[in-house]
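BUG: 3D viewer hangs when loading the predicted structure for this chain

Environment: internal workstation, default settings.
Expected: structure renders.
Actual: progress bar stalls at 90%.

Input used:
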Amino acid sequence: MLRTRFLQPACASFLFVAFSFAQQPAPQAPAPGSPADLVQQGEKLSRDGKLDDALALYRQALDKAPDLYEAHLAEGMALDLKGDYTEAHQHFAVAIEDASTDNKAQALRAMAVSYAFEGNTFKAAEFETRVFDARRAKGDSTGAAEICNELARIYLEAGDADSAYKWYKQGYTTATHKTDLNDADQHLWLFRWESAQARVAARRGNGDDARQHLAAAKTALDNAKNPDQMKFYPYLAGYVALYAGDSHEAIEQLQNADQHDPMVVALLGEAYEKFGDAAKAKACYRQVLELNNHNPANAFARPLAKKKLAGS
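Structure tokens produced before the viewer hung:
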């Protein structure tokens, strides 16, 4: 049962001991049938796309432990994936209230993503900025900058390029405000900033500007010498090509991007659609619905895929 407070407005340190070499014991598995165990079982079902079965387990967990943070968080995520946004907001509101200090940011960001699923960028920004302000107050420039970029992406995919540009710029300024950034990190943040400008320009219809920023992003990425970041370039190049009107180039680039990223697969579907290959477009949209991520990418990819398949 939902708690009555849903009716109210939603408003580690580690001690290293030099002389101790003993390994810490592995976390114990929750007792079978316990609320924590039910949540873990539900999370696996949710990842497999069995959302109704997952929700049944989360509700069993909450019957036993109505204040269980993890159960409210997990149920909210599953409800978003089903499209039941209002009920999802209610569970996230309780998760925020019940969250420990360490979990507060996670709960706030989950609520922001929930509103992104719903298409409400105003409310999404309300919760993202709470995380941004808290991290900035703690002097966590890198963490604060990451939240700026997360909010900027929500704005961009919602079609608000101006707000996206503002927050991407804030993210770059916040990150590079640190005086102790090494050369590699400076180039990495420059890559992110040029990447952001490329996507914003593409969404504004400024293809030439987008391609210039794309080239600058590639140079910064090469200078960063960070192999883990190289996988993001095909997504960026495909994004720019798609919005610049080159569906063939978009397909070639996006096929080399992460096929477990719902936004990549959704963009590939749109590229196939523009290229005139309806069958491959539909296959991409169906693939999106098999990816059960609760993140800003899926907040836009999943509703898009549902809409495309419903109209086919």
